[in-house]
Amino acid sequence: MAPSPPARFLLLVEWDSLKAPETGFRRSDRFARWRALIAGPLAQPPLAEYFTDIASGARRDPDHDFFTG
Fold it and tell me: Is pTM beyond 0.85 here?
């Protein structure tokens, strides 16, 4: 039996501000191309959730945050 495809995926994006995705991405040609690529597999529009980092006292490095702890 072949494994079934995942029913959920997570795309984690870090923006400079809450307005950045709307003004810098959604109104761009890049958004139209991205949306066309992912529209087929989606059963419904994606759910967007917003989170805020909680400072841990460690020096932040936006290029390597996944590797700090």
Answer: no
Q: Is the dihedral of CA 52, 54, 60, 65 positive or negative?
A: negative
Q: Provide DSSP, 19-64.
A: SHIIIIIITSHHHHHHHHHHHTT-SSPPPP--------SSPP-TTS
Q: pLDDT tens across 19-66, in order?
A: 888 888 888 888 889 888 888 877 777 778 887 777 655 555 566 555
Dihedral Cα 32, 35, 40, 41, nearest 10 deg:
170
Residue with tokens 């995705």: 21
